[in-house]
Amino acid sequence: MDLNKKICYCFNVTVGDIKKEVETGSTTLAEIQTETKAGTACKGCVKRIQETIDALLAE
Ligand code: FES
């Protein structure tokens, strides 16, 4: 997975940022949103965040 791929444009959150959170135990969409703010503005990236979490957990 490309860790530099941008997932949330509003808050400049990348796959790598989400990976860091998943590795420290934040595995739900709500937790990722709390930790990174990703998906809390335009919400256009919410589906991408969930897909990224799912892919990281499947690794
Ligand atoms: S792109 Fe993530 S909240 Fe807008």
- Series of secondary-structure elements, N-terminal to C-terminal: EEHHH
Structure summary, number of beta strands: 2
Q: Strand order within the widest sheet? A: 1-2
Q: How many discrete structural domains?
A: 1
The structural class is mainly alpha
CATH architecture: Orthogonal Bundle
Assign the CATH superfamily: BFD-like [2Fe-2S]-binding domain
CATH topology category name: Arc Repressor Mutant, subunit A
Largest sheet: 2 strands, antiparallel
The chain-level mean pLDDT equals 98
Number of helices: 3
Organism: Turicibacter faecis
Protein name: BFD-like [2Fe-2S]-binding domain-containing protein
InterPro entries: BFD-like_2Fe2S-bd_dom (IPR007419), BFD-like_2Fe2S-bd_dom_sf (IPR041854)
Give a brief outline of the structure:
The chain has 59 residues and is mainly alpha-helical.
Walk me through the structure.
- This protein is mainly α and 59 residues long.
- Helix content is 51%, strand content 8%.
- The chain has helices at residues 15-23, 29-36, 46-58, and strands spanning 6-8, 13-14.
- A hairpin with a 4-residue loop joins strand 1 and strand 2 (13-14).
- Helix 1 (15-23) crosses helix 3 (46-58).
- The chain starts with 5 loop residues before the first strand and ends with a helix.
- The structure holds FE2/S2 (inorganic) cluster.
- FE2/S2 (inorganic) cluster binds at residues 8-10, 38-45.
- InterPro entries: BFD-like_2Fe2S-bd_dom (IPR007419), BFD-like_2Fe2S-bd_dom_sf (IPR041854).
- This is BFD-like [2Fe-2S]-binding domain-containing protein.
